[in-house]
Every structure is written in C-alpha cells, then in structure tokens.
C-alpha cells in the first residue's frame, strides 16, 4: 500500500504527538523508589538499634523491597528535594505478612510498626525545626487516627493509614496529598520536603515482622 506525502506527514505528526503526551505524563511524576527496576539508588541506611534487613525481592511477578525485622530498628532514607506545589501527592504500595503484638502506639513501648513511610522537612543545624509525617500501618490505632510520636513529640506526627482491620499478605495502594497533610498537621504551609524514609521496626515490642514495599513516587494529581 502506497502512502502519499500528506499521509506520511500525518503519521509522523501522530507519532510526535504520542511521544509528547507520553513525556508530558511522565513529567507529572517524580520517582522516589524504583524497586520494580531492581534499584536502590540514593537510599541510605539509618540505624537506630540493630539493623532491619532490607533487600530487593521477586514476589511472584513483582520486584519489591522486602523488610524483615527481629527486635530491630533501622530504616532507609533518600534525600530528595521535592516541590510540593508541583508534586503534591505521594504514591506507594505496601503489604505486611504478620501483625505486631502492640497495644498502644502512642507510648514508647508501643512505638513499632510493621511498615511506615514518612516525609521529612530537614531543620539542618536547627534540629527542633525538623518536621516529619509518618504514614504508618498501625496495629491498635484506628485507621485515620493521628498522634504525636512517643519519642520526639509534636515534631513527628503519626497517621494510621492501615490497621488490624486490613488483611495481611494483601497489597494496598496509597495516595496522600502531602502538601495538605503538612499544612493541616503543623498549621503552616511547607513548599518543599527534603527526604523520604521507610522503616519496619520492632525494637520496642521485641517482636518479629515481615513486610513489602512497592515503588514510591510523587505526582501532580
């Protein structure tokens, strides 16, 4: 089948438009963790007591990050400067394989979570200016419950997105408007955040837990 010059132009124009739209859609997302691509680039260990095991893992047809904690407390942190006016939403998926025997997350002996992801605003030399929102998979706290961290108080706010009512061995996808969450929880607007961290910890309850994390990214909507 012969295609005239006008037809070729239309085909090329359509291809160019498709490439433009694909790039435009991609530009609306800011990758944070590409676990599905077997990448831990930019992630650093942050150890509080003994070390939680974090490793890339093939779970059925999905490459993810596996976290295993046995009376340990360490996390992974990635320093990334994010413009929340452009990328307001944090997106990720996670699952847990078992629950912790925690009765009260608001006190120090209960400050353990099968999975958590938090955003950090770095106060740098002024440590009291450091702020963090912890999105946690709680055990006893109800979904949607909010409280101050048992160790650092009002500078780190905990928010239960999942609880014991949610199933184990089941993937859940999350999407949070970080800009609005920060404004609501701290009473002021923050234009930027400086880091994303994740942690599975059991050092206070002296328990054991296994969890998985999927890719993490920011989006404009």
Protein described:
With 221 residues, this protein is mainly beta. The protein has one domain: Jelly Rolls (Sandwich). The chain has 2 helices and 13 strands. Strand 3 and strand 4 form a beta hairpin. It starts with a helix and ends with a strand.
What are the main properties of this structure?
221 residues, mainly beta, Jelly Rolls, seven-stranded mixed sheet, six-stranded antiparallel sheet, 14% helix
**How many separate domains make up the residues?**
1
CATH class: Mainly Beta
Helix tally?
Answer: 2
- CATH topology title: Jelly Rolls
Which CATH architecture is right? Sandwich
Share of helix, binned: 10-25%
Task: Give the topology string: H per helix, E per strand.
Answer: HEEEEEEEEEEEHEE
What spatial form do the alpha-carbon principal axes imply? globular
Strand composition percent: over 45%
Biggest sheet record: 7 strands, mixed
Q: Whole-number average pLDDT?
A: 89
Distance between the termini: 44 Å
CA-atom Rg in angstroms: 20 Å
Summarize the structure.
With 221 residues, the chain is mainly beta. It contains two helices and 13 strands. The protein has helices at 5-27, 178-186; strands at residues 29-33, 43-47, 53-59, 62-70, 73-83, 89-96, 113-121, 131-137, 146-149, 153-162, 172-177, 192-201, 208-219.
Question: Could you outline the blueprint of secondary structure elements for this entry?
Answer:
Blueprint: H1 5-27, E1 29-33, E2 43-47, E3 53-59, E4 62-70, E5 73-83, E6 89-96, E7 113-121, E8 131-137, E9 146-149, E10 153-162, E11 172-177, H2 178-186, E12 192-201, E13 208-219
Parallel strand pairs: 8-10
Antiparallel strand pairs: 1-13, 2-5, 3-4, 4-13, 5-12, 6-11, 6-13, 7-8, 7-12, 9-10
